Amino acid sequence: MNATTIGLIAGTLTSVAAIPQVVKTLRTRHARDISIWQPLLLAFGVALWIIYGMLIHDLPLILTNIISLGCNALLTGLKFYYRDDTAS
Amino acid sequence: MNATTIGLIAGTLTSVAAIPQVVKTLRTRHARDISIWQPLLLAFGVALWIIYGMLIHDLPLILTNIISLGCNALLTGLKFYYRDDTAS
Question: pTM of the full predicted structure?
Answer without folding.
Answer: 0.83
